[in-house]
Every structure is written in structure tokens, then in C-alpha cells.
Amino acid sequence: MANLEQWVSDSLHDILALSDRYVAQFMIGSARKSLSAQDFVAHLKSMGTIDINQRVIAFAQELYEKIPRKQVVEKPARAIERRVMEIERKNRNYTLLSDSESDGEAVREKEKKKSKDRGDKRKHLRKREESQSSSEEETRKSCYSSFLKGPSSFSVVSWAMATRSPVRRMKRRRHLSYTKAPEADYLEACVVSVLQIYVTQPPGDCLVFLTGQEEIETCCELLQERCRRLGSKISELLVLPIYANLPSDMQAKIFSPTPPGSRKVVVATNIAETSLTIDGIIYVIDPGFCKQKSYNARTGMESLIVTPCSRASANQRAGRAGRVAAGKCFRLYTAWAFKHEMEESTVPEIQRTDLGNVVLLLKSLGINDLIHFDFMDPPPHETLVLALEQLYALDALNHLGELTKLGRRMAELPVDPMLSKMILASEQYKCSEEVLTIAAMLSVNNSIFYRPKDKVVHADNARQNFVVPGGDHMVLLNVYTQWLESGYSTQWCYENFIQFRSMKRARDVREGLMDRIEVEVCSSGGDIVPIRKAVTAGYFYHTARLSKGGYKTVKHQQTVYVHPNSSLFEEQPRWLIYHELVFTTKEFMRQVIEIDSSWLLEVAPHYYKNKELEDSSSKKMPRKQGKAKEELG
Which of 346, 485, 525, 541 sits a CA distance of 20 to 30 A from 183? Predict the structure, then answer.
């Protein structure tokens, strides 16, 4: 088999200039499954990835002939079962005549049958079908009895006969409704639609799709408030939210059965499109919007923007209705908008995300020509080029675009390249234990703290208790350290408004990094300067400086803002490094840490120059430049 695989690999290299072990294995498997050499060639042609010419056809025929094939020898028991099945099939086509008195009677019976009309023939056919079904039923019963007697009288064929049942195609009963005109406020329209369904439609639970946590909480509040106004005029309405940052115990409530005499309304993000199925959903309300993440490679900023969903997503949402009974989907947009304003399918994620990790992985696999690489969904050219520039700045690639030793070590860690550079730099600064914890906490996507609307003050006070000098990274380290000291307590997380599920995931990520990392694990002993330097070594690309108009990024001079949840929101230090830049209502920096500008020259002298880091606010303008007060008038 190894020689055949090597031959296929060499042949592919000669024909297509392509040599890959997995492609060779795929070719061998396809040839083995094909019925003939022509079938194998037709299969290659249908794939559309290989231009079929005479060399490819000759290669396919030769490969098909080289594939070793086993001769199928029929077992004696199988042969007996096959013959029994054939006899049973023939017996169904004959009618046995019992107690026949004479040949004359048989002739008279024939004449009577000939004289019957078409209606009698149909009746005879119905009786024949009934007799066949009864014989099949008897066969099944005999097979079940043989199964109960023991394995000696039971076979696979008899089991197939016993369990065979007619296949019925279930027709999805679903009714789609559109609005006559576009809705000005889709959130208000969702609330009104839920109440209208509640009052006018037959019993059944309802599923509402919204874009994010804020909208879901607002919708739940409006529904509960209006139900309270109606009082005892209507029966109970259970309003249950579901989104990613909701604690697990509250997420599980949507799966509990609805009490008799009441209805359940589940208000969800697009997580309910495919990731989970809720029993009892009859009605679906689809406003036609979703939050989509996009990435601007030039500024390095991610955006979460509310956009119209695709037609594929809309059909997936409508599919949630009518699974257990006849369902209805109420689309809060016009049929014209569905056909003309919505895209056919969602934009692939590779075309709207940071490609640093993808490029590093492809480079580690030996794929160097990324510009001409045959992506299934090609990403933007600019995103690829800027990802290569970022990896070069991180010393993961050399000036020829080849992977360095540091880049090879970075590729072994299943995290973002800047995060892996930070972890490897912690070995130099003797603080790998703390940096591993920070890396694990940063990997859980800002879902550490939980802030319920009815306990906002308590949640903010609990969060303030974790604040320590240095920045948000040190706050995350403090949270994990206290959770570790509590013995990984669930109760401690509940009392401090911290998501236990996210902390558990962070612990799993940290253990996974500990197994993969090849550095000496040591602690800084309470000194936070080495930790901040290690963060700077990985994230020097994300530096912002405070100027008169606020914070601006050092390289692109883009105005950015500290996130209100940050521990440094009010302090405003001179120099900051941020973990990510996200556009929601403004260009917010998330997870910021205070640094010294001299550290940038220490960890990245190839990227920053002295002039870029000079403090120009304290300098005066040179004389005889600019206009005097009198000249300005």
C-alpha cells in the first residue's frame, strides 16, 4: 500500500506538479470505490478541480488497475437465505388452489374471472396487496421468533426483514407571513407580534430572533411590563432569554417543559438557528437582522454591526417552526425585501476575520505561496498581505517570508500569534506562570463578568473589588488567583458575579497550554513589571498614546477610546497597549494595560523609532513659525 501511495504521489507530481500524501490517499480511496475506470474518470471530472486530459485519463485507468480488490465469496448461510427469499418472492405471485373438485370447475372459474369488469379487477388487486402485506407480516413474525430462539436461527437478513417498515416522507407544515410594509422599529414590532400571537393564535410556544444581549434584555423587559399591565386578563407568559454570556443555569430554563395553561416565549440570538433545538416551538418571529463580525485589516479593528441576515439564515430560522406540529413563521419584512435586499448566503468568515493564525498555520505546513493558494473562499488580498506584515513584525517570518525558529514555536500553540509571542516572551522575563493565566483568561472572549440588569450595582461593586494597579490584564490575573484560592468554587463565582463556565474554560485552556509550551514555568513573585513587559513583547502592534484629543494609535493615528468597563477608564495613563480594538458605538480598546514607552524600543526596535515615541506635547514650536496674534486679526 505504501508503494502504491508513493507511485500515486509521484504521478501526481509529474502530471499536476502536486505532491501531497492526503491527496494521494484520496485518489486511492476514490479509485477503490469506483465501479470502473470510466466511473473513476467521471468522478474526477465531476469534482471540477482537475483538468481532464489524456495523461489524467491514462493515470486514472492505470491506478484503477493497480488497486487490489478482494474477491467476494458468498457464505453458505447467505446463499441459503438468498434462495429462501427468492422462493418467497415467487410464491407471492401465485395463488394456490386447494380442494379443487374437477377440471371443469377450474374452467368455469376462469370464465367467471374473464367476465368480471374493471371494478372487480381493482378489488382483486387490493385483495392481492392485502395478502402480500399479510405474508410480509408473517415473515416478520417468524423472523422475530427466530431471533428470540437464539443466534443460531437468526441472521442479518432476517433482522432486516423483521425491522423493515415503509418509508414515509414527512412534509414540513410551515406557513410564512410577510409584512405589507417595512417596520420602522423592529424591536417594538417583535413585542407587538408576540402579544398578538398570544391572544389570537392557538396554543404553542414562540421563538423570537434578535441581534444581541442588549436587545434581548430590552425585549424581555417590555414583554414582562405589558403582561403585568394586562394582569389576569391573560394567562401566564414565560419570557426566557438565551445568549452566549448568559449563565448556564439560566440558559437551561428554555428546555424545561411549559406548564399547562401558559405559554413560553424564547428570545434568542442566531445561536438558536442551528446550535440548539427547543421542543414545543410552533411560532417563529424573524425581524431579519443579525450581528455580523467584520475585520478591517488596515486598522486592525473588528466591528460588530447589525446587518440584514441572508436568505439562507432566514430559511434556517423559519425551519425552527413546524417541527412538532403545523407551525408559522412571521417575517417582519416584506417579500420584496427577502428576494431583492437579502444576500443569498452569509459571507464566509475567512473573508471577514484576522488571518494571522491562518497564515502562520499554512506557513508551518510548508505552503509558502499564499497569494496564489487555492482557497475555497478566497480572502481579500489586502488582509493576507497585512497578516504577513504582522507576522514579520513579530519575528515569526524572515525577510524571505520563511518561518523562523520563533515562528515554528508560535505555530505549535493553538492561540493568536500575538498571544503566543507573549507566552514565549514570558520565558525571558521569568513570569511564564502569570502570563499563561492571563493568556487563558483572554481566550474566553470577554465573558468573565456577568452583569444582570436587576443587580447592576452589586455586580459593579463586585467587579471593583478585583481592580489592582497595572491594567485589565492584572485584574484578570487577580480574578483567576482568587478563584484558585477558593478551590475552584462555584459558589464563589456566584457571589462575585463571575461566570463559572468561562472560568472553567479558562482553566482548561491554561492546562492545554501548559502541556504544549516548551518553556520553564516560573513566577515573577508579585512583581508586575516583567508581566507588563511580556505583554508588550506580544502586543506592541496594539499601542495607543494619549494626546490632546484623546487616545490615538501610534502607527495609524486613529482615534480610539478606552472601554467603559476597563479599570483604567478614569485614570487615562500616557501609554496603553490594548488586546483588541472593537467598533460598537465607538472605536473601543478592550483589555488595556499601562506600559512605559521605553519598553517598545526594548522589545521591538525594528518596528518603532525614537521619533515616533517622542513626547511632542511638551515641546514648543520653533521661532518664526506660525502667525502672530496680530496677524491672525
Answer: 346
